[in-house]
Write a structure and sequence with these properties.
Blueprint (H helix, E strand, L loop, with lengths): L1 E9 L4 H9 L11 E6 L8 E6 L5 E9 L3 E8 L2 E12 L2 E11 L3 H27 L3
């Protein structure tokens, strides 16, 4: 299994603001320049799924495999012979809110999906996570 994480500690937003930002899947395209489409029917909760299309990419169905309001959520993307997990956590610390995104890829062809999908996501995390904070400040 391949795993990479990035964290930011901030006093600019609360865990509730971050949760609200992510739970509003249908508006991800308004704050994430890499999103062509994100669409959910129903609640942002474990067991549900959403449609996600990165700019220039295909539409994908992502499952919500973990969701603990204001604390964390994990999404799952299934690829041929591989799975990619996006783990997102919001943890209050003495220094501020610690926001962590961890990408994991597993499976026989995981090395391929890591190279063509997951590594690009990880490389963009510092900039993307700062944009999430900037967008969540308005919620």
């Amino acid at each position: 299994m391949w795993t990479k994480s990035h964290s930011i500690v901030t006093n600019e937003v609360t865990k509730e603001q971050m949760w609200k930002l992510f739970a509003d899947v249908n508006n991800w395209h308004t704050w994430d320049k890499g999103v062509e489409l994100a669409q959910i029917v129903g609640k942002f909760e474990k067991g549900n799924h959403f449609i996600f299309q990165p700019k220039g990419g295909p539409k994908l169905k992502l499952a919500i495999v973990e969701a603990d309001e204001n604390k964390n959520f994990t999404d799952l993307t299934k690829f041929p012979l591989a799975r990619m997990y996006g783990e997102h956590t919001f943890e209050e610390t003495a220094n501020g809110l610690k926001i962590t995104t961890t990408m994991k890829v597993e499976g026989i062809l995981g090395f391929i999906w890591r190279k063509i999908v997951a590594q690009k996501i990880v490389d963009a995390l510092p900039e993307d996570m700062q944009q999430q904070i900037n967008s969540a400040k308005n919620l």
